[in-house]
Amino acid sequence: MPGYGMFFDPTFILVIIGMALSMAASAYVNSTFHKYDKVRSKNNVTGTQAAQFILQNQQIHNVGVQGIAGNLTDNYNSGTKMLSLSEATAQSTSVAAIGVAAHECGHAVQDAQGYFPLRLRAAIVPVANIGSSISIPLILIGVLLQGPVLINLGLIAFSMALVFQLVTLPVEFDASRRALAILSEGGLLTEEEVPMARKVLTAAALTYVAAAVSTFLQLLRLVLIFGNNNNRD
């Protein structure tokens, strides 16, 4: 069909698939969290209290705990040694909140023990950020100047975002594994509540898997489009 390629890019389906996966994963983690956020823990401890207990129990005394704005914005910063809990987690006594707080403590334990993937991820962050910001400009300039070297550099720069996503996967899965072990042994959750927390953390982990797949599909699309351009040159 004449002009077909001018009006339709078949590789765009890869972007749509990536977006669909990310949206589905995000919807799933939100629905799972809200489901178990309605289940009050029998020990009636808040996310903040759980985090403080876990850090003390793990003999980690150089990490602070603070509340931050937002919903599911919980994070651990290894640079500042600060564990930040969102409004939905910090003061809630739900099974979901305690599970999320324990997960962030899992990162603090990784940091204290020198967990290599966590250190590697921290080292990759600036490279991945720079790569993401310059990749498309490099590719476009390469196309305009018909410079395959610039196109290849742009593709390599974009691939650093995928490397970051792949390194993130073991970090997040390991933090959840540590969290569930701590919750099972520390008595913060009952035997019946631990499987609920596991479902919350599993749902959260799927968002990282979806992000990695989405980034891979975006990179594949760039390779298919501009790799062909490169070959023609």
Automatic annotation (TrEMBL):
InterPro entries found in the cross-reference section: Zn_peptidase_2 (IPR007395)
GO terms classed as biological process: proteolysis
Keywords of this entry: Hydrolase, Membrane, Protease, Transmembrane, Transmembrane helix
Molecular-function GO term, any one: peptidase activity
Segments crossing the lipid bilayer: 12-33, 123-145, 151-171, 205-227
Positions in coiled-coil regions: none
Name the UniProt record assigns to this protein: Zn-dependent protease
Species: Enterococcus saccharolyticus subsp. saccharolyticus ATCC 43076
Lineage of the species this protein comes from: Bacteria, Bacillati, Bacillota, Bacilli, Lactobacillales
